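## Example record

The block below lists the input lines for one assembly entry, exactly as stored, with component labels intact.
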Amino acid sequence: MAYVAIADRDDPHALHHPKSWVTRYVWSQDHKVIAIQYGLTAIAVGLVALVLSGMMRLQLGFPDTFSFIDPADYYQFITMHGMIMVIYLLTALLLGGFGNYLIPLMLGARDMVFPYMNMLSYWVYLLAVLVLMASFFVPGGPTGAGWTLYPPQAITEGTPGAGWGIILMLASLAIFIVAFTMGGLNYVTTVLQARCRGMTLMRMPLSVWGIFMATILGLLAFPALFVSAVMMTLDSIIGTSFFMPAILSLGETTDYEGGSPILFQHLFWFFGHPEVYIVALPAFGIVSDLLSTHARKNIFGYRMMVWAILAIGGLSFVVWAHHMYVSGMNPYFGFFFATTTLIIAVPTAIKVYNWVLTLWKGDIHLNVPMLFSIGFIFTFVHGGLTGLFLGNVVVDVPLSDTYFVVGHFHMVMGVSPILVIFGAIYHWFPKMTGRMYNDFWGKAHFWLTLLGTYSIYLPMHYLGILGVPRRYFAMGSTDFVPDSAQAMNAGITISAIIVAVVQLIFLVNMVWSLFKGKKTDGNPWKATTLEWQTPDTPPAHGNWGDKLPVVYRWAYDYSVPGAKDDFIPQTEPPAPGVVAGREHGVEHS
Amino acid sequence: MAVAVVLILLVIGSLIFHFWSPWWFTPIASNWGMIDETVNITFWVTGIVFVAVNLFMAYAVLKYRHREGNKAAYEPENKKLENWLTVITSLGVAAMLAPGLLVWGKVVTVPEDAIEVEAVGQQWAWSYRYPGRDGVLGTTSIRHVSPVNPFGIDPDDPNGQDDVLVDGDDMHLPLDRPVKLLLRSKDVLHNFTVPQFRVKMDLVPGMVSYIWLTPTRTGRFDVLCEELCGLAHFAMRSKVVVEEEAEFEAWLANQPSHATMVARAQTSAPAGQALYAVCSACHGAQGEGNEVLNAPKLAGQDSWYIAHQLKNYKSGARGTHEDDVYGRQMAPMAMTLADDDAIANVAAYIESLPDAKVSSKITGNTKRGKELYTTCGTCHGARGGGVWTTHAPRLANMDDWYIKRQLENFKAGIRGSHPYDAYGQQMVMMSKILGDEQAIDDLVAYLNTL
Amino acid sequence: MTWALVFLAAIMACVIAYLLSQTLNRQPWLANDPLENRPAGMPQSLDPRKIGLGIFLAVVTSMFGLFFSAYAMRMGLADWVRVDEPRILLVNSGILLLASVAMQWAVFAARRDELRATRRAMLAGGALTLMFLAGQWLAWQELRDAGWYMRSNPASAFFYLLTALHGLHLVGGLWVWANTVQRLFAEEKIGERRRSVELCTVYWHFLLLVWFFLFILLLAT
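Predicted structure tokens for the full assembly:
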């Protein structure tokens, strides 16, 4: 069968060229503008979630002090905080933001394959965000059912926002899934179809691999959330009994009969667990590239890294019920899911080893992106290892629903990807703007964020072992929680507020540098990958000028023996005298 | 450079925190010591990896940090090293998984001789059911639940008649006897957790889940709900008492059976009328209340609430706090009621009294009061009519001065802080949302409008 | 959840097998690895829209698979009641099958560059699909007249939900179909429209397949 690279049918004039400011920056079909739109929206909504978490921490650290936080508010805050952070910030920023920006640039494409659908994806995402935010202003407020939205309580009276709030939440999720599907179709098709000449799959940078696999997971997993959202909406509005057994609702009998709350949990976690990897895999990929670039060394064990991404992606579909060990499901499932869950630790551990081994014998430039990457490895190792507690069914039992869980998933799914996101923003900021950020404040931001977050989440694990339950508005008096735990909670709250305020440094640094930062050339980090080889910085519409790049090598030719510089861009044809790979017995032509 | 040092310090700091922080498992009170063992194994395995990986990384950063003229090595992969690491990781994982699965096998296999006890969850309280002399729990259905039959026991099932019911009181368990706890929910998801027992499980409406354990230490432990179950989730508490078998049997013999409860519900208000004579001196012949004597209006209040409070007064769960001046007056009065039947009768009589419109005096910002009441209304009903399943009494058209005093008492811990006043403890936690006296006035003023 | 697992495991297995076949035994750091130096990209016959449609169908498969598995799991619970499926469903199935045949006919005609035959076949396909939707509506009426409402019991709730979702997918398809037909009538040559006809047809076949699964599931329970 004839293979034809996209380069061979390249037509730069076929692109949809913007004619006015509005089509350039608002109704734009340029993947880079869409990426920035996604990114800014996600960060804005993330700031809302950050404020919500601050309010929660005020209540937990200093109970009975803030009369403006009542239990209903508290449960609404935790629910919205969780949902916004997981879906509307992390998923949207890593895939909609970085996925959009990096895939075409790193693969040597002019744009996504379906630019119009890409644009639509952003606007539908924005609609989902607006619907979600609208729930703050409806009678009863947003839902307070916890981000897992378990029925029956999500739609019965005793839960805040059981009327309007939950319906808007479910509607917003359904809209988000539509947006994600439109984006996801683009990312996968672009990776499969629009790579430039020479860009084989195994020459793709790991960032693209991570985003690619995460998108496939998302496309297959989000339907589970969609299905459960549709069915719960019907239960709530029409009164069907998909998830609703015969129950009382605050003393009143209901018409529900025979539904299964556990069915919802299966569907939710069938989405929810892959969702963890939807967030983690892009972060894994991106951090690999940051480490390699700033250590001036090829990523160690590239093939193993790719296979690990594939293995993690595949396994992530058969571990979902480890979130349900104490849910009342058939307890014998525990054997199967504990085993699959701990197996997934092996490819994950391999990735960690390879990151650390990439540093070994490197030439480590401790730039801001590198600091964030090292911080990521530390927090991810911590969060990943505590995951082995919760994945192993019997160890999970005493710890489930405690602060141990809160500490664990914030380490592994909150702090770790966020550190990567920061690192990535600092790394690609010069490419996106043509200017350099302020290095001192970048480093200050890193130190305060890393130390602050660790001092928030490390103690939480121990409160959890003690038995302090999560999702408690107030602990009240118990026989097993000493006063010192409350003192620790106050300390955690102070750390949390510091970390939240510190993020202002980041915002100010970005805005200031956008206008006043030092101008840079197109490749300040001396990186090999294609996005740094564009003719313009920031890259113009169409990315590559008149001619698409041609790729001759993998993405990690750093410090190749015999080469003049310590990096060789992917676009550089093989030259005699460079002996990379000779030890494998292959001669150069 | 600094980052390497900080990494080392973070590792050391984590270890110090681990070994010297005061927070660790509460002393165990069940047979599940092996769960603690698996946690410890996991701590050792993961701890070693944590220290090794991070120290190696710190060393690498220290050793290979950029200096002028440095050049990185070129090493695409090292199959041998990668294979070794894979094997070692797999062994470490197996070392955690194997004991975990073995112990889980024990957790899911209930011993033959385990006694069955049912724990029932509802928003936001626990109740317990023991099989009676026949050793079999009666079948239940949500459709049978009523104030007379809060457990929903099938009236036609002979096995259910002698079931022993514990509603609003501690759960008791015998020492050193395996117990299978059957978990059932009447409304939403809950989770039965006693931190000292280690095992926990969700209660799922529409089905019965279970855990089993053998209590190994006497004492009185907290029962918590650990699955978000609505607004008052955090206040859904109870206690479990582990005691010697003989004490347990004695306690069990004193608890009412389902048949007794049903019979007690056939109370006669006329029988209560004679008993009410004592009460009427302060509370008025029609239960209209008398502020001068600090006796609140009783007419219009539900009998289950009156009965519960009288029992509290009798048992000392209410009216014993030294600052509860008026409660201490009430306590000896409650003593005049001989037994639970007398309490039931007098409560039934009070419920039959005509409900007159109460005069209100407290004023405040009713708009703010309404906002505050959204929390209260979850249990007490949107119109303040009281909800029997949440054990929340009627508030509308009751004496405002009394409600205000009780809120102040709850806030100050004068009422409800007694360890045997289960629902009072909920109010202690909930009353904390009323920041100051003005908030209480606003709330009570809003109640006056209902 | 076994249904969902079978569906998704199959899809994931294909994805991973394809990716592994592309990545096994590659040593990308070797600059002149012969396997790495051939031009990248997909076979020419596959255009991006076809890949996009394929991925979209995978997503829809995942969704229906999960609905089916929810159905199967709910069916296992004690209070399951059978719905008496309206007879008209059998007729509807026949009509949808004919619609698919007509669409396939349009593809053959388009490949032979027979514009008028393509137009006719497309119109027939669309009309049959509309008939199918009308037939589904009648089936709903019949069920409602028999006293089966959405909230009567889980079986009828699933019946309405699943048939409605399938119908909505057809309506979405009809929107694309309408665009294609309009262009077929506006243009003198088939040309680029051949691809659109093909894509429509793939979608129709897919929804026919979903319908047969759904129909069997509904009948069998």
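The two ends of chain C are 17 Å apart (CA to CA). Chain C touches chain A through 59 residues (CB under 8 Å).
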